[in-house]
Design a protein that fits this description.
By secondary structure, the chain is mainly beta. It folds into 2 domains: 10-63, no CATH class; 72-137, no CATH class. 0% of the residues lie in helices and 30% in strands. The protein has strands at 30-34, 53-57, 82-88, 96-103, 110-116, 124-130, 136-137. The strands form 3 sheets. It has a 3-stranded antiparallel beta sheet with strand order 5-4-7, with no helix packed on it. Strand 4 and strand 5 form a beta hairpin. The chain is globular, with a radius of gyration of 15 Å.
Length: 138
């Protein structure tokens, strides 16, 4: 995925919100924390490390929703598709995690992936593939 001339970036939360996400678009409810924070599960990241950071919804937010929004990605061409792999942890039976795609010519957000009702209490990985001939956000 290409944004501001870079590609193939690995996105973690070790020093701040990673470059792919809007710093200003971190809606209330999201907190940057690690497994040592004492807030509750998860107590480690997807590699089993308790000191590395991830984003989490604060418990005060439930049952409402919160959004993470990427920066603008540039259009794909035939030679490049955009693949985004992310790790997620669901510890609430009623929770739904959705990935949406907003193309710049459209007002609405198209739901391209979702998972709900899966009380896994473990990290799972998912990869989404995006093909867009115009600028977009995820």
């Amino acid at each position: 995925c290409f944004n501001s001339g870079s590609s193939g970036e690995k996105c973690d939360f070790e020093t701040d919100l990673c470059k792919a996400l809007y710093e200003l678009n971190l809606q209330p409810g999201w907190i940057r924390r690690n497994g040592q924070s004492g807030i509750g599960p998860p107590y480690f990241d997807h590699n089993g490390n308790d000191s590395t950071y991830f984003l989490s919804l604060s418990s005060e937010m439930r049952p409402s929703s919160a959004t993470l929004r990427t920066n603008v990605f540039l259009p794909n061409d035939e030679a490049h598709v955009c693949q985004i792999t992310f790790y997620y942890w669901i510890s609430q039976m009623s929770g739904t995690l959705m990935v949406g795609l907003q193309k710049h010519s459209e007002d609405s957000i198209a739901n391209i992936w979702q998972v709900s009702g899966e009380l896994q209490n473990q990290w799972k990985a998912n990869t989404i593939t995006i093909n867009s001939t115009e600028k977009y956000e995820v």
